[in-house]
Design brief:
The chain is α/β, with parallel strands linked by helices and about 300 residues long. Helices cover about 35% and strands about 15% of the residues.
């Protein structure tokens, strides 16, 4: 039985973590406790010895999900899958266990886990979009390494256009041509692509000139307090105009305040992600808040 047939749609507005330091918690809207884990989700955790033997991993993991919202339409555009430990350990603790010996197994297992969990968490017959981070160095041959992703999507009935693969622009990429080959193969397969943390690295414009992804996520440091920083607004405005000309959708991530959001709306951005709307929800979909900003 599907998740939404078994549990009320009363997910915590702000997930399970502590409130953002810039936003005092409203006692009237205090986050509820994490609902009991359903068997359908529990069965997908990384603790299964058979799964560990198959993937070559010696540790378990699961996922939290944070929504990306289309603010004008007040709907969820996609859910970003964020790796967590089975005991809700943060992503940094999980990534500390990844090295050159197991990065391929970890990358493959994360893809499968994210797609399977989204299939379980989505309403019946309406699979949600999922955004999955991938490790370029763990993709040895793009056409071969994508097979398990395609097989998993077919098995759970996930449309390929609902799967977004994002790579961090600041991540060290030894072979840019290899990354471009990955992106092109994913697009050829019907998957969507994204560049994450755009503006945090040193090769963003060169990468964008060589390949135009479906989505571009602005680095949160670029948009922090953007309502108070004219140079940042001018830079973001230019990025938005370039992306509009290239047919790329822009996502502003890390939004914490209404003032930041309003400034970005004025710059033409429609897709948002951040604590202002919802915190990551452990093994579930968070229900986002849509603050009244006067322009939505």
């Amino acid at each position: 039985m599907r998740l939404f047939q078994n549990i009320r749609r009363t997910f915590p507005e702000a997930g399970i973590n502590s409130p953002s330091p810039t936003q005092p918690e409203d006692p009237a809207q205090a986050p509820a406790r994490v609902p009991p884990l359903l068997p359908e989700v529990r069965s997908l955790r990384g603790g299964c010895s058979a799964c560990r033997e198959e993937t070559g991993l010696n540790f378990g993991f699961t996922m939290a999900f944070q929504p990306i919202v289309h603010l004008a339409n007040r709907v969820i555009f996609a859910h970003e899958a964020l790796v967590r430990g089975d005991g809700q350990e943060p992503a940094s603790a999980m990534l500390a266990l990844v090295d050159d010996r197991n990065k391929y197994a970890f990358d493959q297992a994360c893809r499968v886990r994210a797609i399977e969990m989204v299939s379980v968490l989505s309403p019946a017959g309406r699979p949600a979009r999922v955004s999955i981070n991938f490790i370029p160095g763990a993709v040895y041959e793009p056409k071969t390494c994508i097979r398990r992703t395609l097989e998993t999507a077919a098995r759970v009935g996930m449309p390929l256009e609902n799967i977004i693969f994002e790579v961090t622009e600041s991540e060290r990429v030894e072979d840019r041509e290899h990354l471009l080959a990955i992106f092109r193969e994913y697009r050829r397969s019907g998957l969507r692509t994204a560049i994450d943390d755009f503006g945090a690295g040193h090769s963003g414009l060169n990468l964008l000139a060589a390949f135009q992804p479906d989505l571009l996520k602005l680095d949160m440091e670029l948009i922090r307090d953007i309502d108070q920083r004219l140079p940042a607004r001018r830079i973001v405005q230019a990025i938005v105009e370039v992306c509009r000309d290239l047919g790329i959708q822009v996502i502003a991530e890390g939004i914490e305040t209404g003032a930041e959001c309003t400034a970005l709306i004025d710059l033409g951005i429609e897709l948002f992600q951040g604590y202002l709307f919802a915190r990551p929800a452990f093994e579930s979909f968070a229900k986002p808040l849509f603050p009244g900003l006067g322009r939505t």
